[in-house]
Amino acid sequence: MILLEERIQKDGIVKEGDVLKVDSFLNHQMDVSLFAQMGAEFKRLFKDKPINKILTIEASGIGIACVVAESFNCPVVFAKKTASINLDGDVYTSKVISFTKKREYDIIVSKKFLTKDDHILIIDDFLANGCAVMGLIDLINAAGATVEGVGIAIEKGFQPGGQMIRDKGIQLESLAIVDGMDPATGRITFRH
Ligand code: 5GP
Question: What is the residue-wise DSSP string for the chain?
């Protein structure tokens, strides 16, 4: 998506440790009109799928997921991150290692909001090692629901998550794929 690539070129900041900072339009301040165009693009890419629910992970996936949900006219469920969980049997859980914080945490979704009849589109802001998406797939599998696809705003194509998900036969659509980024020069290159 050219518009998103141009915005990353203009406002993205390359940090050490393979982190791309996009705080000014996606992760802290949010450009909602850009989000609306991203939502329309995801709708176009997944138009043939019988999607009835969007699943994301708190916090930064929620904004994009809401806009996508509007274009599919369906609800959003976000997996909650929690340091220690109260296992009362009413939730599905999985473990995720945070790419940016380098620590492990549990994610949970109430069994009320994920059922075997659901056809889910997973949405997130970034794809790096694929840990967050794999955790969400775990929750969907535990519920007996169907993964219809994965939609990502920014995939870092030089990290293994994208390949891992495509190898599972899941339709993965990333609106921008960063192929390389250099913290010394700030240079960012994209895959087309
Ligand atoms: P993964 O689980 O695929 O390794 O990492 C994906 C998660 O880590 C995303 O939900 C996102 O919040 C965060 N993340 C990964 N890489 C980056 C990055 O370069 N910049 C930002 N802002 N977040 C990232």
Answer: -HHHHHHHHHH-EEETTTEEE-IIIIISS--HHHHHHHHHHHHHHTTTS---EEEEETTTHHHHHHHHHHHHT--EEEEEEESS----SSEEEEEEE-TTT--EEEEEEEGGG--TT-EEEEEEEEESSSHHHHHHHHHHHHHT-EEEEEEEEEEETTSTHHHHHHHTT--EEEEEEEEEE-TTT--EEE--
Name which residue sits closest to atom 9 of ligand 1, judged by CA: 126
Task: Give the global pTM.
Answer: 0.97
pLDDT digits (tens, 9 = 90+) for 105-133: 899 999 999 999 999 999 999 999 999 99
- C-beta of 60 in contact with ligand 1 (< 6 A): yes
**In which residue ranges of the chain is pLDDT below 50?**
none
128 C-alpha to ligand 1 centroid (Å): 6
* Spacing, Cα 51 to ligand 1 middle (Å): 24
Cα 127 to averaged position of ligand 1 atoms, centre (Å): 6
